[in-house]
Amino acid sequence: MRKVVFFLVPRLHLLDLAGPAQVFSTAADLGYGYQLYYVAETEEVSTAQGVPVKASLAWPELGRDDLIVVPGWRSPRLSPWPPISARSKQVLRTHHASGGSVASVCSGADALGAAGLLDGRRYTTHHDLTEELAARYPKANIVRDVLYVMDERVITSAGIASGIDLALHLVAVEHGAVAAARIAREMVVYARRNGDELQESAMLRHRGHLSDLAHRVQDVIDSRYADRLPLADLARAAGVSERTLTRVFTAATGLTPLRYQQLLRLERAEHLIAHGTTVESASRVVGFEDPRMLRRLRSRTPAATA
Fold first, then answer.
1. What CATH number labels 212-306?
2. Which of 19, 28, 112, 123 keeps 20 to 30 A from 158, CA to CA?
3. Is the pLDDT of residue 192 over 60?
4. pLDDT of 243-285, one tens digit each?
5. Which residues of 230-255 are buried (b: 16+ CB within 10 A; e: fewer)?
6. Where are the domains of the chain?
7. Which of 157, 203, 143, 155 is nearest to 179 (CA)?
8. Do residues 27 and 179 lie in contact, with contact meaning Cβ atoms separated by under 8 Å?
C-alpha cells in the first residue's frame, strides 16, 4: 500500500489539494493500492477559498515507495518565506534522502525550494511565480510553460488543475497508462500528458472525446495491444459493423483502430529500447512479428532514434 501524504499549509488552494487527492483516491477505489494522509502544522488549516480543512499533526511512518505532496497556497506574489517550519523542511529533506518522492503543486514548489530540494534540479511552478522563484532559488533550473517536471524524485507542477496531470502521470509510471486512462475516465477529465517525461502518451492523448463506443474499443486495445486484433473481432466486441466502428473510432480519435494500436506498440517499444532492450527484443514484446515493421514505424517518428 503506497502512502500519499498531503502536507497542508495555511491558505492552500482547494483544487491544488482536491485534484491530485481525487486521482489517488479514485486509484485506491479501483484497487491500485494507495492510502491517503493529510498532515499540517495546525489541526485546522485555512484555505484560499474560505473552507477550513482538518489535518493530523503527526506524520505517518514513510518508506521509499511513499510520496509527499505539497499543494500550493494563495500567492499572487510569494511571501518572504514559505509558511512551513524548520521541522517540516527537515521531514521533506529526510524523506527524499531516504529514497522517497516529493511533489508540489503551484507555489508548493517554494516549500521544496526552502527545503533545499530544488537546488541543481529542474522544476516548474505557476506562470505568475516563475520569475520570483527563479530569483529566490538561483541554483535551480526553472522550466517554463510545461505542466509538470520530474527530476530525481522531485516532481513539480504548474498549478491548480495541473496537479491532476501530475497525479495521473505518477499513477501511469507506477501502474501503466491504462490505469491512468481508466482513472481519468472515471473523473471525466481530459487526460493531458504535456509534462517533462512521456509528454504525449497515446493512451491518454486520444482519450479526450465523448464517444462511449470508441472508449470501449480503446479499453480492449489498451489491454491487448501486443495481440493480433482483427477489425472484425473489435467490431464484434463492440456490437457494430466494421464500417461503423472505423467511422466512429476515427471521428473520435483521429486514428483508425490499427493505427492506434501501432502507436501503443511503438510507445512501449521506445520505452524498452531507452532502457537497454534491443530493437529485436522490443519488437517481440510489443507484438511485431518482424522487427522491420518496428524500424519502419520508428523511422517515421521524428522523436525516435535508431
1. 1.10.10.60
2. 28
3. no
4. 999 999 999 999 999 999 999 999 888 878 877 889 999 999 9
5. eeeebbeebebebeebbebbeebbeb
6. 2-175, 212-306
7. 203
8. yes
